[in-house]
Design brief:
Layout (H helix, E strand, L loop, with lengths): L20 H5 L4 E4 L5 E3 L21 H4 L8 H5 L13 E5 L3 E2 L15 H10 L8 H11 L5 E3 L5 E4 L8 H6 L10 E5 L4 E8 L7 E4 H10 L5 E8 L2 E3 L9 E4 L4 E5 L10
Parallel strand pairs: 3-5, 3-10, 4-6, 9-11, 10-13
Antiparallel strand pairs: 1-2, 6-7, 7-8, 8-9, 12-13
Length: about 280
């Protein structure tokens, strides 16, 4: 949905074909059946038909680039997958959980959603959630259009970042000594749901793009904990940068299909990181 103040997209050409690299590794997009019933393969420069899906880009390192002759998956084979979660009358709602609110007791956590670079941070803060962090209602609208026929709802119970029990607040004397300096970042924070407070581990960002990161596995535990009984799936959105393993620089999220949950971070999609 359009917003006043957003910059218009400057791209004037829509690309429906693969990158030139696809020719180098021998990938050809299947576009349609010929009158004889045989599938025709296209060159990357062929114009895509209106009935065809846009071709994959096929960039170096992509799965298709590593194995361009891997057999395609048909809709029928996907429907027959035993691992697929079926939509039922009891489980037919897609829920979207908005980024958690932040309790004033952990005010520092609110500063972690802005880039650490001073210029990027200033521009991101001026834009607010308008550009850097998508409006959750827009995401609900998008998912509703993509999964046409399934109801898509906001998770009714709010989530709140707060203090974790083992993290004691700084004393007044320490706070006064640190006046004018950066506040010490907690190693763990709590994420309060309607029924419990779940520990979320944190760490400093290895590449210093953001001040701190949140642990993805802990957030997935939260998503599983708050999954409504009538949910087909739940998407938990977070504005903070994430990590999963100690060796990660960052991760953008993960989906657990069997558990019907996904956690997605919008932090690395901040447009001002491109400058």
């Amino acid at each position: 949905m359009p917003h006043d103040g957003l910059e218009q997209c400057k791209q004037e050409i829509l690309t429906f074909t693969s990158s030139p690299y696809a020719n180098e590794i021998g990938y050809r997009q299947r576009v349609h059946k010929s009158p004889a019933g045989k599938r025709k393969r296209s060159d990357v420069n062929d114009l895509a038909e209106s009935s065809s899906f846009p071709a994959p880009l096929v960039l170096p390192g992509d799965d298709l680039a590593l194995d361009p002759k891997y057999p395609p998956q048909s809709l029928l084979s996907w429907q027959r997958l035993k691992e697929r979660n079926m939509v039922t009358r009891r489980r037919n709602v897609i829920y979207v959980a908005a980024p958690p609110d932040i309790d004033p007791a952990v005010e520092i956590v609110g500063s972690w959603i802005h880039p650490k670079n001073s210029k990027q941070k200033a521009r991101s803060q001026r834009a607010g959630s308008l550009n850097a962090h998508p409006d959750v209602k827009d995401i609900v609208d998008y998912i509703s259009a993509f999964y046409h026929g399934l109801p898509v709802k906001l998770l009714p119970s709010a989530l709140v970042f707060g203090r974790w029990e083992d993290e004691s607040p700084p004393s007044k004397s320490k706070a006064s000594k640190r006046k004018g300096k950066d506040e010490a970042a907690p190693t763990s924070i709590g994420l309060r749901t309607a029924s419990e407070n779940i520990r979320i581990r944190t760490r400093a960002s290895p590449d210093s793009v953001y001040p701190s990161q949140l642990n993805l596995d802990d957030l997935l535990d939260v998503a599983i904990s708050v999954l409504p009984s009538d949910a087909y799936a739940l998407l938990l959105l977070v504005s903070h940068d994430l990590y999963e393993d100690d060796d990660d620089i960052f991760v953008c999220g993960r989906a657990y299909g069997g558990s019907r949950v996904a956690v997605i971070s919008t932090a690395r999609y901040d447009p001002y990181l491109d400058d």
